[in-house]
Amino acid sequence: MAFDLEMIRAVYAGMGSRIEAARAAVARPLTLTEKILYAHLYGGEVKHAYERGVSYVDFAPDRVAMQDATAQMALLQFMQAGKPTAAVPSTVHCDHLIQAKDGATADLAEANAENKEVYDFLASVSNKYGIGFWKPGAGIIHQVVLENYAFPGGMMIGTDSHTPNAGGLGMVAIGVGGADAVDVMAGMAWELKFPKVIGVKLTGKLSGWTSAKDVILKVAGILTVKGGTGAIVEYFGEGAESLSCTGKGTICNMGAEIGATTSVFAYDEKMGDYLRGTGRAEIAEAAAAVAAHLRADDEVYTQPELYYDQLIEINLSELEPYVNGPFTPDAAWPISQFAAAVKEHGWPEKLEVGLIGSCTNSSYEDITRAASIAKQAVAKGLHVNAEFTVTPGSELVRYTVARDGLLDTFAEMGGVVLANACGPCIGQWARHTDDPKRKNSIITSFNRNFAKRNDGNPNTHAFVASPEIVTAFAIAGDLTFNPLTDTLPGTNGPVMFDEPVGVEMPPRGFAVEDAGFQAPALDGSRVQVLVSPESDRLELLEPFKPWEGTDLKGLRLLIKAQGKCTTDHISMAGPWLKYRGHLDNISNNMLIGATNAFNGRVNEVKDFVTQGDGYTTVPQAARSYKSMGIGTVVVGDENYGEGSSREHAAMEPRHLGVRAVIVKSFARIHETNLKKQGMLALTFANKADYDLIEEADLIDILGLTTFTPGQPLQARLHHADGDTDLITLNHTYNEGQIEWFKAGSALNLIRLKESSGSMLSQK
């Protein structure tokens, strides 16, 4: 079944003229990224060229996707926008709230009981506003989108940082906060700084143990966790065309780990095969008819160094498998060097758990390659030395691989199949362990491996690799084992693994009994959305207060965060996911994972108003200052807010009285989320000024009465000894974003405009 077919045909019908106008405006050949972006301008055909990395541009995405954890806050905000229905095709996917514990059946039943209130809310609000609803167990948002909604040349935003997964089908798909989703669902323009374009030329062809996962693991090692910030990564070359569609999706999915705005591949026959295999032959036919628009111009491929801001070349024929980690996804180790790295760094050699699947690697091809290794283990009499779990990405994949006997293969080697949900990848894992604080090692085929992310244990060393490498390591139970060269003891002596064998598409086609989709009512005007005032999981939102019209003076330093501070540090997932629809309750996790630069401890800061010189938790200190009417400031290090798109990491500080976040540099999504919630997202003009911030400082933010794009602000630091420092703070606000700040939030501005429009229509 092809969803939204007429919308897709309309996009293709208008692409030619828009791309032609863009080519004339830019006066040079276009990259694929530029073609898609210029074809989705909110105002129609381009009037002038935009400068990469500089110009803020209004876009009109084709659709919106939301997962259940972020959808709660997004839809609570949308309910305030005063719109009768979503302006573009939108969907909600229930994948984040299912905890992995005992296995798929038991875990899903427990989740349905535990989260009934939230699921009922999401189902009813989706029903009211014309939003497609994917029930718990239907699958992980990104896999379901790839199977049903992604289309070449389209543009989508999603309230999850791994939305770029859809780039595997040639779509510019960008992770955003819920407030951005509200803009688009309300029919308004969505703003993005026109990204730079990084080209990755792939030559050769994968073989043996090397998979698409290893491409992005290597790229992560090259670009690091912030090397893609402000850029779209565009893959091309003969090597790109040789990759399966789902393999391309894996690469794009993990582009979030390098900070990229998104990643994308040009349309090719592999994408056409996947569209036809998932029941969308009409889209494959429509895409083929405009194929020239769904790839960069020929001149770009001939001389890529002239058209990309940065160019990387990788020969797939020479690429070897990688294992990345621990604690960061850009610590890249070729398999030939990994054992030595384990020994050199003293990482726990014993492997306790191997986990495959997730939104990143749960395609039919992934499962067949991993199953080919599992089958060898059974046939060669190998003993499995670590726990092993399988997380299917969707019910379509799960049902098909079960029908084809692949899940039975994993069961024979002792594997446990978990629900079609995020589970351990996002900390929703009731891990079986005798000591939750023990130093240990796990390996996954997931995308992210920050400390504490999977199981809450800061001493868990999490490594990332392809599903087949993970499977081999789980069998060996030893991180110094190299499956390409080493032997394991079998029933008849030492044995080596044969190379994995995968099948891109199921020979008998995909099959499913109940995909888990629930269509909305044709007329939702009478549908009631009920939120109990006694609920501790759902809470209707109160608008944030607008700016008072003055400089902000006498602000207290809440915390000076040291080192890596991701959205997991700012607003943890795991057990806190249950409060994603209740802003006040979830605010009790604000910055509890951040390290205080003054004492080196986590979640321990001074409250100079009520505690004197004593320490308290970050949320308690914030609530104390807020109760006294004192605003606060958060100071951070480089790439502050990297990781998930969760806007709670911006809404919680706003709710608890933080007025400004001052850092050395921001991750893109988090900076936007802060702006959307009416906060000041500022960077040190001189990064060394970070060291001037003292624990007892009072801080004034100056220059707000003349707040102007391109004009820095200042902060006066009042130190406890009576001295002061005046420092310069840069910002990236444009005129529209400054209006968000003045109104108190972007949503407040939508509400004001809606109210003004209503009053004018009444007149």
Outline of the structure:
With 763 residues, the protein is α/β, with parallel strands linked by helices. The protein has three domains: 5-318, Aconitase, domain 3 (2-Layer Sandwich), CATH 3.30.499; 322-430 and 440-493, Aconitase, domain 3 (2-Layer Sandwich); 552-753, Aconitase, domain 4, CATH 3.20.19.10. β8 (196-203), α8 (212-223) and β9 (231-236) form a beta-alpha-beta unit.
What does this structure look like?
By secondary structure, the chain is of the alpha/beta class. It folds into 3 domains: 5-318, 2-Layer Sandwich (Aconitase, domain 3); 322-430 and 440-493, 2-Layer Sandwich (Aconitase, domain 3); 552-753, Aconitase, domain 4. The chain is built from 25 helices and 30 strands. The strands form 8 sheets. Strands 22-25-26-27-30-29-28 form a 7-stranded mixed beta barrel. Strand 26 (658-663), helix 23 and strand 27 (680-684) form a beta-alpha-beta unit. It is globular. Residues 557-686 form the Aconitase A/isopropylmalate dehydratase small subunit swivel domain.
CATH topology name of the largest domain: Aconitase, domain 3
Shape: globular
CATH architecture title of the largest domain: 2-Layer Sandwich
Proportion of strand residues: 15-25%
| Number of structural units classed as domains | 3
Classify the secondary structure makeup into a structural class: alpha/beta
